[in-house]
Specification:
Elements: H1 3-21, H2 29-47, H3 56-59, H4 62-74, H5 82-109, H6 117-141, H7 146-169, H8 176-196, H9 203-225, H10 231-251
Helix pairs in contact: 1-2, 1-5, 2-4, 4-5, 4-6, 5-6, 6-7, 6-9, 7-8, 7-9, 8-9, 9-10
């Protein structure tokens, strides 16, 4: 069986399982999503088995699992009828196929530059932001005490940040610099989440603020790892940050 055929089968099977999870009784739904996440991890391992190395079980395979987990949790917040299920099935399956394609490119690259690597990094960044949006929206919707919200944002975003930074260099070892930068970025995201718990924005505005900050942080840190962090780059991201703050503080309404 060819590799892309496995990607299609994996995406369709996981899309079907996502729908099945929604029929699980509500009191068991979180457990079901946990099982779905684990199944996604091993199904992705099967789909990517041709070029998968030992360290990539911790650097490539978690990403499809995080995508599945975030969509499964976010699905709680959507209307429960046939059309919604069909749309989610289609979008999730297409997204999973794209994630597997990008993961395959990272696995094949193995420290060397290939033509599609930049496209894979762009897809990875897009889905990183999307997963962040889903996780943040789900966490804020629970209306937990500020310390639990901050902790959950940190726990869900650290692997996202680390995997995104790792994909810049595709190192075969776990570099201390990448780990420290990931911890720093996660800390800042968690502190932002802490601040947002005291500001009466709507769920979507809070989630979008987290996602926007993550985009800026990953952009700056990624440029640093590529050794392309120039004053012009900082100025551009600074302008984006200023524009985002202006939008949220002066244009977007509070609750």
């Amino acid at each position: 069986m060819r590799r892309r055929e496995r990607f299609v089968i994996a995406a369709l099977v996981l899309g079907f399982l996502l729908i099945v999870v929604q029929y699980i009784p509500l009191e068991l739904r979180y457990l079901a999503i946990g099982v779905f996440t684990v199944v996604t991890y091993f199904v992705s391992a099967w789909a990517l088995k041709d070029d998968l190395q030992l360290h990539e079980w911790l650097t490539i395979l978690p990403f499809p699992a995080l995508y599945a987990s975030s969509v499964g949790l976010f699905y709680f917040l959507l209307p429960n009828h046939f059309l919604t299920r069909f749309i989610i099935f289609a979008l999730f399956s297409v997204g999973m196929y794209a994630v597997l394609l990008a993961s395959n490119i990272f696995s094949v690259a193995k420290g060397r530059t290939i033509q599609l690597l930049h496209a894979a990094q762009a897809i990875s960044l897009l889905f990183t932001l999307l997963i962040s949006l889903f996780f943040s929206n789900t966490i804020f919707s629970l209306h937990l005490p500020f310390y639990w919200t901050t902790l959950l944002i940190a726990v869900t975003h650290f692997p996202l940040v680390y995997l995104s930074l790792w994909s810049v260099e595709l190192s075969t070892t776990f570099k201390r610099e990448v780990l420290v930068l990931a911890l720093l970025c996660t800390l800042l995201v968690a502190e932002l989440a802490l601040i947002l718990t005291f500001i009466p924005f709507s769920l979507w505005y809070q989630s979008l603020f987290i996602m926007s900050f993550l985009y800026i942080g990953l952009g700056i840190l990624g440029s640093h790892l590529r050794e392309r962090l120039f004053f012009k780059t900082l100025r551009e991201y600074g302008l984006v940050a200023g524009f985002v703050v202006f939008l949220f503080l002066f244009l977007f309404p509070l609750k």
